[in-house]
Amino acid sequence: MKMYELLKKIYPxxxxxxxxGLDAVVDILKEELPFEVREYQGGREHNGWFVPLSWHxxxxxxxxxxxxxxxxMSHPLGVxxxxxxxKGKVSLEELKKHLFHHPKFHDALVYHCDLFYKSGQKNWxxxxxxxxxxxxxxxxxxxxxxxxxxxxTMKVADYLLPGDSTDTIVLNSHTCHAGQANDDVAGLVxxxxxxxxxxxxxxxxxxxxxxxxxxxxxxVFYLADLPDKVRKTFRAAMFLEMLGNDNRLALQESFTxxxxxxxxxxxxxxxxxxxxxxxxxxxxxGNDETxxxxxxxxxxxxxxxxxPYPEYHSSRDTHEIIRxxxxxxxxxxxxxxxxVFETNRVMKRKFTGLIALSNPKYDLYISQADPSxxxxxxxxQLRWNRLMDYIPRYFDGKHTVLDVAVKHELxxxxxxxxxxxxxxxxxxxxx
Length: 431
Ligand SMILES: [Zn+2]
Description:
Elements lengths: L2 H8 L9 H13 L3 E6 L3 E2 L2 E2 L3 E11 L2 E5 L14 E6 H5 L2 E2 L13 H4 L8 E2 L2 H4 L6 E11 L2 E9 L6 E7 L6 H20 L6 E7 L3 H9 L2 H4 L2 E7 L9 E3 L7 H13 L4 E3 L9 H4 L8 E5 L18 H20 L2 E4 L29 H16 L1 E5 H7 L4 H13 L3 E3 L1
Parallel strand pairs: 7-8, 11-12, 11-13, 13-16, 14-15
Antiparallel strand pairs: 1-10, 2-3, 4-5, 4-9, 6-9, 10-12, 14-16, 17-18, 17-19
Helix pairs in contact: 1-6, 6-11, 9-11, 13-14
The structure holds zinc ion.
């Protein structure tokens, strides 16, 4: 299914970290790719994290004098996540303590997920548009809120695509935000599309793994249960989120900001999506990168998003703010970064001394206008001139193609094409 269609099919579900809504989404994902489903029992503890119990609301009515004022079941965000059941008569003052609204969009619902993460807190509540909250008159309100907290397993969808090497690049998106399209069904459908395109390739140098999991809970328990020797094959990870709205790409660096994945991502985006912006670890968005990068794991994890966007964490985050071309650009950005990984290698010379690049038997000189005739040489030609002067020294068994492209501010794929010509002439080999 195409990215936009898949997004429209998934996002209206009532997902939460452990819920029938998430189970339904995992079933949809299995129609797209042969995911293996990993399950973690509700209530299980690791490092102080608890897998939430399977939760969903079944009835959520507020009445006044018998007349229905609000039905929290009318939207997946209408009941606060992990809410307890409550039945009784309350005053308006009391009721208001249990109503949550969006601070800016008075016609919209806010995403309330606090209770999942604060296992000690128990509360009940509704999300209601402020436009309705402000019309409520004093008096007694009858609340009938029924939610189910049940045993059941949290599902993590895991798809492994093997390559020549067991070294693995991980894509991760989260699957726990009810009724929201960009956060993060957009990242999920981009990740699915990238995996489909990688699966079609005849040859892959690295293995790839897509892990679609509830935010934090999913990856905490997934990594806790994964054998060390499998986890140690994870060379880098990309968290993909909020990739369909109309904004430039945002690259959030890994913890060190200096990993190969950082350099590959910066370089690819600079040359292909020049309006992108970037910032340090955890300064743009906060997701599972803290889990991947946790001590003992330390898997370099970047995050790619189109944050910020106004509809974030509200019921306005629908397919209507998603653009097909932005999803497509996002998939291409991820594949471009992956392609740097796939092809980046150390270069080693098989010659000594200076090679006459312009000799027809090598044909490695990048010709340009005679500088004495044309005194103004375009900047990129100057860069190629310089590269030709420097490149013999880079074939030292230490520099990679990416090192050279970054240093000389030239597009990676052009530098790769150029050094491949040296290889074809038998002058270098890739280690
Ligand atoms: Zn979110």
